[in-house]
């Protein structure tokens, strides 16, 4: 039996403002994750393991930070003569074109190319969550149901559900979809992984765009998904395994700390489903005499001379002797000098924590400390819980 023609679109153009300083100079999908990866590596790795060969990435904000990481798509076997990886971005120089005004708008503006490609199934995903999923299984379920849209769903605590599209289901059919409601009716949410019937979806987007005028179709959840639920056939595909959205600073830290225990809920190095990424050349990680490392992910090129507990250290991070790092994430090239203590913090690339300084974060929604890329915490300075240390405003 011939394989169905599948096209996957990764919506990688969002500003990612809730990640604050982490997305000031990089796109959200380019934010580092897990010591040696980027957020966009999650859907691209899932695509590779699912046997999807045609992947288009739609960029917008800080596009160079994504394009540099993707290069030619080789780590995900997308460097092909025909098909493979295609990077798309808005081009305001084209008459009628403008910056994308939402995820549905981004999809709609690529409609001519999608129609030309003529896929049987259109897989659309975001790049801001960590999970393992065989997209081919979702496509098969979608085809069997003869659905117009299949929404991959999962359960989240009811107090978090309002951040997402909340759904009601009956017998596998989606009977209601409400985008980011103030008072969620259920704890079942859409994970921003969808399979669409291309023809019905693009025709409906044309209708929505015509009514919206200059504002465009907005986000997928604004009009398209509710219309497909109300006017077409919408089904769910329940994701029973791990799924974690990394849309906020506390969630970003929490997701990392989930990786470092004895039994993490997801393994990035699982031989059966490894995370794939474009890796720069680094030497081996080094743990010096007298150093202590307990429940730590240690990336290549990292060097530890002090004590590190329940943390993730990215490539070329240095923790000097006498320093201590606890419950934290240190991004590439961050340095913690002698005698400094870093707790419940995210220290971005190239930042430096001065000798004897104390970064006193707390593991709570308001207590995580964020130190911007290239920022400096002065020797002996004290940074209080919840602080944001900017590059042009060095602490201390």
UniProtKB/TrEMBL annotation:
Q: Which UniProt keywords apply?
A: Glycogen biosynthesis, Nucleotidyltransferase, Transferase
Tell me which Pfam families the record gives. Hexapep_GlmU, NTP_transferase
**Residue intervals of the Nucleotidyl transferase domain:** 9-258
Q: Does the keyword Transferase apply?
A: yes
Q: Does the keyword Transferase apply?
A: yes
Show where the Glucose-1-phosphate adenylyltransferase/Bifunctional protein GlmU-like C-terminal hexapeptide domain sits.
Answer: 287-359
Checking SUPFAM superfamilies in the record gives: Nucleotide-diphospho-sugar transferases (SSF53448), Trimeric LpxA-like enzymes (SSF51161)
Q: Which domain of life is it from?
A: Bacteria
Kindly give the Gene3D superfamilies that the UniProt entry links to this protein. Hexapeptide repeat proteins, Spore Coat Polysaccharide Biosynthesis Protein SpsA, Chain A
Family label? Belongs to the bacterial/plant glucose-1-phosphate adenylyltransferase family.
Concerning PANTHER family, the annotation shows:
GLUCOSE-1-PHOSPHATE ADENYLYLTRANSFERASE, GLUCOSE-1-PHOSPHATE ADENYLYLTRANSFERASE-RELATED
* Protein name per Swiss-Prot or TrEMBL: Glucose-1-phosphate adenylyltransferase
- Organism encoding this protein: Planosporangium thailandense
